[in-house]
Amino acid sequence: MMDKISLVAFATFLIVHVLIIVSIATPDWIVSDIGGSIRLGLLWSCQTTRGRPEVCFVPRLCAEWLVALVCLLCSCLCVSSTLLTLVLGHWSSQFQLAARWLGFAAVIFLCLAAVILPAGFHMAEIGAWPYQLPPSYTVGVSYILFIVSIFVTGIAELCASRLCLSHR
After folding, report:
1. Residue 1: pLDDT over 50
2. Sign of the alpha-carbon dihedral angle for 60, 24, 159, 88
């Protein structure tokens, strides 16, 4: 049985994992309801024109969004590895140290994605300046889940660090 700190760290990293996957999988990063609706995502985007059914398609990502997607996928891989090492840490404290550093790497990748993604607001679908959305566009639920995942990862990393300190 895992101790309480290990369970809290595991649960928070599991929440982070779900948040990242859901945010990547849904096309609601940037949304607009002007002249129909458009929902822009990293893996696909959807557009609805008045009176017509919604059409979803694979977007042609600008370089910034592509780099942000790679950072998100790397963070997802780090979180998956962290979950595995937390479970293995039940048998060896060296795995707990690895979990701490993998969690830290996940934080770094998420923060990189948070800085890089808004630089892509200049893409043709949005037509704005980097880091500045026009008034007709707003951030969607995917973007919000992504930002929440950064905060929860910080909490999970604090738990993992506490876990490593408790075994010294």
Report:
1. no
2. negative
CA distance 65 to 42: 7
Residue 51: other Cβ atoms inside 10 A: 6
Residue 133 exposed, middle or buried by CB count within 10 Å (0-12, 13-18, 19+)? middle
Three-state secondary-structure class, residue 30: strand
Architecture of domain 4-166: Up-down Bundle (1.20)
- Strand arrangement of the beta sheet that strand 37-40 belongs to: 55-57, 45-48, 37-40, 30-32, 138-139
Q: 108-151 pLDDT, tens per residue? A: 999 999 999 999 999 998 989 999 999 999 999 999 999 999 99
CA 10, CA 91: separation in Å to the nearest integer? 15
The pTM score is 0.91
* Separation between Cα atoms, residue 72 and residue 114, nearest integer Å: 9
Nearest CA among 134, 20, 131 for reference residue 69: 20
In whole angstroms, how far apart are CA 94 and each of 97, 136, 153?
5, 51, 21
